[in-house]
Amino acid sequence: MTKPEEGIAKFDLHSEDIAEARRQELLRLFPEVHTESGGINFEALRLALGDAVQVGPEGFGMSWPGKAECAKTIQRQSVATLLPVEEESVNWDTTQNVTIEGDNLEVLKVLQKAYLGKVKMIYIDPPYNTGNDFIYPDNYTESLETYLQYTGQVDGEGRKFSTNTEASGRFHSKWLNMMYPRLAVSRDLLAADGILFVSIDDSEYPRLIALLNEIYGEENFIGTMIIEGTPKNDPRILSTAHEYCVCYAKDFRIAGATDYGVQNQAFSELQRIFENHKEDEHKLRSELDRFLADLPEDQANVKNYKYFDRKGVFRTGPIDDPQGSGAKDKRLNPLTGNPCKTPNAGWRCNKETWDEWVAQELVWFPENDDQLPAKKTYATSSRREPLRAFQKIQSRKTTQYLKNLFATEVSIFPNPKPSELMDLLVELVTEPNSSEEVIILDFFAGSGSMADVCLRKNFAKQTKIKTISIQLPEVIDPEKSSSARDRRRAEVAISFLSSLNRAPTISEILKERLRRVANSVGDGFRSFKLGESNFAVWDTSAIEGDQLKLEQQLFAQVEHVLPGRTSRDILFELMLKSRYELTTPVEAVKVGKCEVWKVDGGEMIAVIDSGLTIEVIREIAGWKPASVVILDRCFGADDSLKANARKIFEDSKVDLKTV
Ligand SMILES: C[S@@+](CC[C@H](N)C(=O)[O-])C[C@H]1O[C@@H](n2cnc3c(N)ncnc32)[C@H](O)[C@@H]1O
Known about the structure:
Largest sheet: 10 strands, mixed
Structural class: alpha/beta
Radius of gyration: 30 Å
Mean pLDDT: 89
Number of strands: 24
Low-confidence stretches: none
Strand order of the largest sheet: 2-19-3-18-17-4-7-9-8-16
Helix content: 25-40%
Distance between the termini: 22 Å
Number of helices: 22
Strand content: 15-25%
Bound molecules: S-adenosylmethionine
């Protein structure tokens, strides 16, 4: 007799196997290094790489205590999941934004399958390591377990998160051990043309660059932005008022060929001046002159826009052929009625194009026949140019904005990133009115400055940004404040959140901020929380040599869904691990007495609860979904139902998995 489940594949509950994915990538590039058993022949790889192989101890790179352990941390697969929290969300059914409460390393691993290679921009503002500004798990290899203890989801055994202080020794190593796995795992999420921005200051700038050169490759370093803001309190020797924003490309060759750009605000201003004064030529002249005179030297290209006509402000450029071999036919100056002076190099364009330019008023004509005509370029605000690496940005406006948004007496979050800066970064990778969907990820989200700007931009500029914000439920603690002002902020934050019946954590500030922004621009977000898998998963790494844990796991297999978990919890785990994004549409339909989940309009079907019959199976097969996942428990003790399911789906060429 064949066992009913024979031939039915088991659903894989683990996150992406990162090491395996890399091995496969290498084998794809070098098929000749394949060994018979599917491994890599290093000798063959060496041959394939020829002279580029370095043998011996000449290696160049950074090392620090704990680095080897980081590599293991990166490779360790996650069995965690993200639990949907519909009641905390806004416009659940329609939104494309996501907030995730949890430790970002574990969350990034859980996101690997669904978001691999899909993210256009990652922006992070990690702890700068300036004293006690970051908390890290004492044992960072047990990320999920430590996290669950931190958030009180399981009983603690003394493992805890603590802050990093200079006194704790290995100050920089701890920061590196925290950052390295997170930067490495997140890089896989970037699209081929994706870019990364990291805010940082002098404390860890050198190490951040070394780390990113290692993870991204030096050739993918785009540059460092310098953000000048408010001078720091109490300067010694150097008075600094700046910090950095470091930029890397996943692949510089691809990103460099992409049309990334921002509008130069000076062009928008030129347009504004024109619109305001176009009826009064004198006023327009004086306003324009004043504006151009006040522009800084590095805006020399804008200073050339010193002319205007009834269409707008423009600059002039040569109309002769750069190669010196243009046609020299006679062309008319409509102002004088005579032929124009012909350039020595000949005309820049043929007669046909010239006529088009003239019709569009793109040629400037002199009133004097001895002068050459010129080509006009109008100042349009849609012109895109590279983002300037030096930016003067005041954060005060954002602090004031937050205070108003929450209607609190002080801003409840210290140092939110300036909206102006976030806006520039977002503008670089998006285009107004474009139908292209762009995923932007911030995995040290804090109060959510990046997502806030994206929601507003979608509203104002018709962009299609999908945001993912990950934030630890870090408890707001007035005792940890380094100044009286920050202590006050923390106290006000706690009483503000408590008045809304929310926990006193930073992730609650994030969600409340997005709730308010979403309400004002008609958008929303789906809220998720990091948690253990819904299923009792065999975690072999956790039980090596541990008899007690082995017994616990065996026991757990009897009812293998965790108590208290809902069908929706389970559905999202199945979706994530089947590579569906967190904002995919889901719908529960009744087939007979059975609740059947349709994911993405029915592309994937999931059956999680009771009521499964042969009729339900036939009906689902008739929909021809790409895949079906059925929980083992839905078959009950009915072996023949499982055998029939296998046969029916096989005949309909539908991929069936059980879990
Ligand atoms: C500098 S703040 C970010 C501020 C944010 N850019 C803003 O404008 O509001 C860094 C945040 O990262 C959070 N964080 C630190 N470690 C984390 C981790 N392992 N996972 C998720 N968030 C973390 C901290 O709680 C802190 O709120």
